[in-house]
Amino acid sequence: LHLPGSMSEVQELCRQLHAKIDAAEEEKYDMEIRVQKSTKEVRAGTAPLSHLQERDLRDVGDWRKNIEEKSGMEGRKKMFETES
Questions:
Q1: 84 residues of the chain, pLDDT tens digit each
Q2: Can you list the alpha helix ranges (DSSP code H) found in the chain?
């Protein structure tokens, strides 16, 4: 740790460190409150969906439209249809 030479410089460094600690403590408090709120919502079954979760739910519906293409079944179906 490099400490400045004069007492006023050390005091300023301490003020800066205290300001950073205060900011970190505020952020920690805010995060704890968000976690508590989210936990309560999940337990109550009322948690809102995030944008990522909404997108995932939309994707679930899409798989039914092209499942044959994704699994390679479309080509296999055509192969069997042409043999008959």
A1: 677 788 898 899 899 999 999 999 999 999 999 999 999 888 888 766 666 665 655 555 555 555 556 565 555 555 556 554
A2: 7-44, 51-62, 67-71, 73-83
Rounded-to-integer distance, Cα 39 and Cα 41, Å? 5
pTM: 0.46
Asked whether 68 and 74 are in contact (CB, 8 A), the reply is: yes
Single-letter code of the amino acid located at 70? K
The residues near 67 (Cβ < 8 Å, ≥ 6 apart) are 73
